[in-house]
Structure formats: structure tokens, C-alpha cells
Amino acid sequence: MKTVSSWAVALALTALVSACSQDDEEEKNDPTPAVKATVVSAGGNINAKLDEFRALLGTPVNTTPNQTAGRREVNWDGVPANLTNVNTFPGDFFNNTDPNGPAGRKRGLVTTISGGGAGAGFRISDNDFADLAASNGDQFNAFSPARTFATVGVNHHDVTFQVPGTTTAATVKGFGVVFSDVDDANATTMEFFEGDKSLGKFKAPVRSDAAGISFLGVFFPENKVSRVRVTTGNTALGANVTDGGSYDLVVVDDFLYDEPKAN
Q1: Residue 250: alpha-carbon gap to chain centroid
Q2: More confident: 26 or 246
Q3: Do 178 and 46 contact (CB within 8 A), yes or no?
Q4: Facing residues of 213 across strands?
Q5: Res. 28 pLDDT band, cuts 50 70 90
Q6: Considering 1, 67, 102, 107, which has the largest number of Cβ atoms within 10 A of its Cβ?
Q7: Strand 227-231 to strand 156-162: parallel, antiparallel, or no bridges (unpaired)?
Q8: 161 forms bridges with which residues in the sheet?
Q9: Which residues pair with 109 in a beta bridge?
Q10: What is the per-residue pLDDT across 113-154, written as a single tens digit (0 to 9) for each?
């Protein structure tokens, strides 16, 4: 693992990626000049890279509000049945602000959608989205079974942060996502923002084995990330929309990020 200055990356792309399972991943990212970024990515067995990124984010894994260090992780498996396999999963589910609400839902994570029309929404699945299209059951696998997450009707969403359990805007230093079934090397990306400033766009590695799992995480030692635009594949998930040919459908599993702190 190494930390690189992105203006130098523009001159030497081979110095870009700090941790990657494939040699050609080094030419896949487009950071903003003068921004330092540590990129950790892998396709296939991602466990070692996940642990590497966790070390960057910090320990422990926080499960209650009022923390000042450590990290947060979301794996969707605590989502109840009434919010599973429907397109109405609330984007603020993992930042409950009710003082009497469950601590496990106060993680400072908010997801939003722009565009996509009236049918767009967030969906949690416990069947690899096979209820939308039967072939999805063969395409998508959960990294941490059994629930996974996707947008329906649009293939991107924004992640923002709040101080856990409050509505106070917050930032993080790093954010990572586990992806399932990345086929197109250029379609699945994360673009990081500090306010209105883009810190760079980074591409997720393609799947490399039957499990089809990939990971991408980026850590910014000198910047504060206020928003992440996550683009999943080149086609929106939906009823009877199938992966293959020119269509690359991608869903996600675990999110990892350091403790959100007030701006």
C-alpha cells in the first residue's frame, strides 16, 4: 500500500493504485490534480484488501453514537422483512435521528437518488434480486449474506454523511464499497466530492472468479469527503432487465467509512 499525489499520477499512471489485484488496474482511475489518495481495490478474494482498508479507516467498528474515532460498516442484513424486496427502502435508514431510536441504525449514512423518474428507488434484496428477473439469481452474490442493496430505475446514487444519530452534516476521510458482478471495466465508479470540488473518479475492478465480488475503497489523508457518487454498471436494475451483452447490471453489499465528523 502506498499514498500517492495525484498530480504525479497524471504524469505516471503506473503509480496510481496503492492496492489492487490486477496489474492493469493502475491505469483505471482519474483523481483530481493536487489531491492525495490511497486506493485499495481487488476482485476475487477481497478479504485481505478489506482488512487493509479497515486499517486506514481506523478501529474499532462503532455501533453507537457519540464516537470520535474508528469506523462504520453497513452490510444491510439488519434491514427488516417489511423493507426487503420492495422499492421503498428509505435512504436515511442508517441514520435514525430519534433519540429513542435503535443505536444500530445511527451510523451517519444517507443515500439519495437524482433522476430516474417516478419508479426509481432503493431496494434491499434477500434473494439476489431474482424476484425482478430470474437470471439475477445466477448473476449476483452477496459478500455478507444474505441481503444486498441496489438502486432501481437508475444506476447511480449519492452517499452523504451526518454525525450519527443527528442531522448535522459531516464528512469522512475514506469510503469503500463491495460490488457484485462488475463486468464492464469502465462503468462502475465512485466519484468523491469535498463540497462542490471533485476529488476524482475511481473505477471498480471487474469480477475475477465465480463469486463475482469486487471491492473499491479510497482514502484521502488531506481532504474531507462530503459526498460520494456511486455508479453501478451501465444499466439500471429493474423488472425483467437482464445482465449480459451490452448491459452490465451491478449491485452492492458492504459499505465501509471512517467515523463521520461535523464539518
Answers
A1: 12
A2: 246
A3: yes
A4: 180
A5: low
A6: 107
A7: antiparallel
A8: 109, 170
A9: 161
A10: 988 777 899 999 999 999 999 999 999 999 999 999 999 999
